[in-house]
Write a structure and sequence with these properties.
Largest sheet: 5 strands, parallel
Strand content: 15-25%
Order of helices and strands: EHEHEHEHEHEEEEHHHEE
Number of domains: 2
CATH topology of the largest domain: Rossmann fold
Number of helices: 8
Number of strands: 11
Shape: elongated
Distance between the termini: 27 Å
CATH architecture of the largest domain: 3-Layer(aba) Sandwich
Helix content: 40-55%
CATH superfamily of the largest domain: Response regulator
Strand order of the largest sheet: 2-1-3-4-5
Bound molecules: calcium ion
Structural class: alpha/beta
CATH class of the largest domain: Alpha Beta
């Protein structure tokens, strides 16, 4: 987890770039500015970026090219700024890995709200104001890896915590055993079905000691998710 992730603004129009910077700074985020795609990528390569606001119409390297380069390297959220309004370009941008899209002229408040949504969703986000995520009566602190149910600390292993973190970051998503393995072990999945089943079963048992709620659903043939 990055402690001081910044928002990178890549926009060649100085007024717009400054406007975004000022609004983000006022909202409590730290950010850095780039005025071309090349400069943006250089700053991105330097590291510590939690989200990118990217204009499409840039001199030299285009926004689309910058988007592809960024997404090749890191799964950071990218929000596109563009004057283009056609449905086709929105779809192709989302297919290229853009996480969201704001059409110019945009309302700065809307952009800030969209940034907040992306940062909440992103496991890489270090600019969150709180490192806690909650689901029902479970609170997980992603910095200290402390998990509580109804205020009581549950002793989970590192892998069990990582599994809960994955689930709680996207409560509506179904995760395959491979997804869970990749995230919690950070290793290549060798098809060890039992490992994940054992860990899920242990998590269920440990949570059950503190609450009657059944938190995790088994989605047969697919994987696991949090219950609605
Ligand atoms: Ca531009």
């Amino acid at each position: 987890m990055m402690a001081d992730g910044k928002i990178l603004i890549i926009e060649d129009e100085t007024d717009i770039n400054n406007l975004i910077k000022e609004a983000l700074t006022n909202a409590g985020y730290s950010c850095i500015q780039a005025f071309s795609g090349t400069e943006g990528l250089l700053l991105f390569d330097h590291g510590g970026i939690s989200l990118v606001v990217l204009d499409l119409m840039l001199p030299g390297m285009t926004g689309e090219q910058v988007l592809l380069k960024i997404k090749e390297q890191m799964p950071v959220p990218v929000i596109i700024l563009s004057a283009r309004e056609s449905v086709e370009s929105k779809i192709s941008l989302l297919e290229s890995g853009a996480d969201d899209y704001v059409t110019k002229p945009f309302d700065i408040k809307e952009l800030i709200a969209r940034i907040a949504v992306q940062l909440r969703k992103s496991p890489l986000s270090g600019v969150k104001k709180s490192s806690e995520i909650t689901y029902k009566d479970i609170v997980l602190d992603m910095d200290s890896y402390n998990l509580t149910v109804a205020g009581q600390v549950v002793a989970l292993t590192k892998q069990e915590i990582k599994i809960m973190e994955l689930f709680m970051l996207h409560p509506d998503k179904v995760y395959s055993k491979q997804d869970i393995y990749d995230y919690a072990w950070n290793e290549y999945y060798m098809g060890e079905d039992k490992t994940i089943n054992v860990h899920i079963s242990n998590i269920r048992k440990k949570l059950k000691a503190f609450s009657d709620t059944d938190y995790i659903d088994t989605v047969w043939g697919i994987g696991f998710k949090l219950k609605k």
